[in-house]
Amino acid sequence: MRKFFTAAIVAVSMLFAASSAQAQVKFGLKGGLNVTNMSLNSEVFDADNQTGFFIGPTVKFTLPIVGLGIDASALYDQRDAKVKVEDDGESVESKIKNQSINIPINLRYGVGLGSTASLFLFAGPQFGFNVGDKNQSLFEDAAQWRLKSSTFSVNVGLGAMLLSHLQISANYNIACGKTGETTISDVAGETVQQMFKKRGRANAWQIGLAYYF
User: Fold this and answer.
1) Residue 174, beta-bridge partner list
2) What is the pTM of this model?
């Protein structure tokens, strides 16, 4: 995974260097909301959508090819999810919190709607690095949830630019691979031990607002 991250960063750096002489570069600040669907086991768990947030600096490159651009950000990202399981006729809830630094790098294609607005589509990889608690207790110590140190996901979305400075966007962030693993305690109920899936993913809808200077 480290080799993949390194290769991706080198490739993006080379692309930026090759296009920076002719590209228009704008820096800004980006923030928004996460609505996370924490999927563990659809047969047993009911994961309620919880609102988290993200915020951080962003940069946008407008390439010398009509309509094409690249944006990249370094975002502090927090996602919460409530997880509920029915065990021996009783309902037990627990909460998972994921705090990370995410680096999304998106290729974008835009269409102008005059001098005041434009619409664009975007997609690209996102690299995440956990900065919160890696080990979290679930269901009164019946299980332990261990978050991975790094994750990889993909963003797909659309947005609008207003007055060349204000950007509104919405995207779906798709986790590639598991976000964490669980360890089941001997004191866990039979339903939990048999049905608890030892992997999980945190996909999220994201609504973002950015201002470029």
Assistant:
1) 154
2) 0.74
> What topology does CATH give the domain 2-212?
Porin (2.40.160)
Tokens of 58: 């962003």
Q: Which residue reads 């909460």 in tokens? A: 95
| Nearest-5° Cα angle at 141, 148 to 188 | 105
Could you read off the pLDDT of 145-168 as tens digits, one per residue? 677 788 899 999 999 999 889 999
- C-alpha separations of 166 from 52, 81, 154, 161, 169 in Å: 22, 30, 24, 6, 10
Contact between 53 and 88 under an 8 Å Cβ cutoff? The reply is no
Domain extents for the chain? 2-212
Nearest one of 32, 38, 35 to 75, comparing CA atoms: 32
- The neighbouring-strand residues paired with 152 are 127, 176
